[in-house]
UniProtKB/TrEMBL annotation:
Keywords: Hydrolase. InterPro entries: AB_hydrolase_1, AB_hydrolase_fold, Epox_hydrolase-like. GO terms for molecular function: hydrolase activity. The keyword Glycoprotein does not apply. This is Alpha/beta fold family hydrolase. It comes from Natrialba asiatica (strain ATCC 700177 / DSM 12278 / JCM 9576 / FERM P-10747 / NBRC 102637 / 172P1). Residues 44-294 form the AB hydrolase-1 domain. It comes from the Archaea. The keyword Hydrolase applies.
Length: 307
């Protein structure tokens, strides 16, 4: 009998067959983004932003509840990731360009503003969006993601954070990080997820989808270029506590204090830049709050959003 190979795991909306979402491509002024969208077209718009090394699928546990609550939900693969366009120039991944992508994405939905929820790098983009384009953000939720100004301050003053950020410095090297991370079918990236979260947080089938997303042509370099651009073109922001760094949108900061990469001080510093900020600490929870505490996070996000 001839061998039949299994099809590769899906990394578009068909990865969630029981959820009423679809994949779409948004041809924005400066980049083409794949996004998973769903919900009431007239409902309040919520944009969910993933971090490294995930893709839109990182929000799989939160999507259905937000759709059922009546929101219009848009979850992009950010530039460089999975099925979105992957510019080759490191400069294309400057924070201001990543942020402008989300402004254009919101406008592509026919809206002037949205509530924005971001984790990790997605949260950093969300912070910058609320700082740089305050009229575009109705409500902000940042999950284990520091405000860029808070991060720079803590990085300079706290040796422990500098030590925890070793990998970000290593990612500045050309091509070597790619060769290391892709070895053994991306086993170092898989170990990073499994090794920094409680057992069972990421299932084998979920990790197969991650590996598929990482294997897209140009994806691994695109993902790493976020770090390279942050090193070469650091965002220019005022010191924490100055008016230029203040976020006006009502903001919820959610922080798993078991994060091995980010010290809890960053959460407090980030709330300090907000005019209307609240902090929820998840004791003992890892960086991967979306997967480790999905129901709790969904409830906290839902209570913070309008509707």
């Amino acid at each position: 009998m001839a061998r039949t190979d299994s099809p590769p795991p899906a990394t578009d909306a068909s990865a969630l067959p029981s959820v009423a979402v679809e994949s779409t491509t948004r041809d924005l002024p400066n980049v083409r983004l794949h996004a998973v969208v769903g919900g009431n077209p007239d409902g309040p718009l919520v944009v969910l932003l993933h971090g490294f090394p995930e893709f839109w699928y990182g929000w799989r546990h939160q999507l259905e509840a937000l759709l059922d609550a009546g929101y219009r939900v848009v979850v992009p693969d950010q530039r460089g990731y999975n099925r979105s366009e992957k510019p080759t120039d490191v400069g294309a991944y400057r924070l201001r360009y990543l942020t402008r992508d989300i402004v254009d994405l919101i406008r592509a939905e026919g809206r002037e503003a949205a509530s924005v929820v971001g984790h990790d790098w997605g949260g950093i983009v969300a912070w910058d969006l609320a700082t740089r384009y305050p009229d575009v953000v109705d409500r902000l939720v940042a999950v284990n993601a520091p405000h860029p100004a808070a991060f720079q301050r803590v990085l300079r003053s706290t040796p422990e954070q500098a030590g925890r950020s070793w990998y970000a410095f290593a990612f500045q090297l050309p091509w070597i990080p790619e060769r290391f991370l892709e070895a053994g079918e991306f086993s170092p990236l898989e170990r990073m997820l499994r090794g920094t979260a409680p057992p069972g947080t990421f299932s084998a089938s979920e990790l197969a989808r991650y590996r598929r997303a990482w294997s897209q042509t140009g994806a691994l370099t695109g993902m790493l270029n976020w770090y390279r651009a942050s090193g070469r073109y650091p965002p220019i922001r005022a010191r924490v506590g100055t008016r230029d760094a203040l976020v006006d949108a009502p903001t919820l900061v959610v922080w798993g204090d078991g994060d091995v990469a980010l010290v809890p001080e960053l959460a407090h510093e980030s709330v300090g830049v907000c005019a209307q900020g609240r902090l929820k600490l998840y004791s003992g929870t890892s960086h991967w709050v979306l997967q480790e505490e999905p129901a709790r996070l969904t409830a906290d996000v839902r209570s913070h959003l309008p509707l």
